[in-house]
Amino acid sequence: MTVPTAYLTSTKNTAKVFEAIQKAGVPQAFTYEFLKQIGFASSSDRPIIPVMKAIGFLDESGRPTETYRHYKDPSSSKRVMAASLRRGYSDLYAVDTEAHSKSSQQLAGMFGRLSDKGESVTQKMASTFKALATLADFEADPPASGLADDQIAPRDAASEGDAPVPGAVPAFGGSLSLRHDVHVHLPLSTDVAVYDAIFKSLKANLL
Question: When comparing pLDDT for 135 and 182, which is higher?
Fold first, then answer.
């Protein structure tokens, strides 16, 4: 079991950063320069970027995801954050489904068991999670948009131009192609006749 290793060295501006995200336009990429533009030029604010990647607000290249866009709606932002934390910290929630209600000390212990990091780091990981949890509503239903836990992901492979998942059914039009793979586990034998018989049977039944 693992948890995100990204953490904030200071959480004093966490709520302000996410408030600024709601007010600002959506950038093509969420960079340090953009962070400065929305009012956070301190080096202690920079770790927010890998943290946002860990909870699915940004993809690995720093581009805002649909989760980021849904969060901009104040009417659903707290529910989006809750779903994002449950997904990003899924192993933490596997240990305790009410992880967000635990104290910082309890969380530090949980992070220590899940990450094998030292005390100083696990305390920061705990305070980071706790700061994000204050921006979430874990009691409310999922966002009205239908953004469920399993829909919040750092990347949308289809929109990024990645190769389609093998065997996936096209969403719109196109032809459906099915493929079957046959795996044969051959027995250990020094008798060539054994293998000849196997391949002869395969040819007769599969062609």
Answer: 135
Share of the chain above pLDDT 70, in %: 67
Determine phi and psi for 64, rounding to 5 degrees. -60, 140
b/e sequence 117-129, b meaning 16+ C-beta within 10 Å: beeebbbbbbbbb
Distance CA 19, CA 71 (A): 10
Q: Coil, helix or strand for 37? A: helix
Residues 110, 95: Cα–Cα separation, whole Å: 8
Rounded to whole angstroms, the Cα distance separating 60 from 154 reads 7
Please answer whether residues 78 and 64 qualify as being in contact, where contact means their C-beta atoms are separated by less than 8 angstroms.
Answer: no
- What's the rounded Cα separation, in Å, for the pair 69 and 25? 10
**The predicted structure's pLDDT at residue 2:** 78
Helix axes 104-115, 119-133, angle to 10 degrees: 120
Determine the distance from the C-alpha atom of residue 102 to the mean position of all C-alpha atoms in its chain, rounded to a whole number: 22
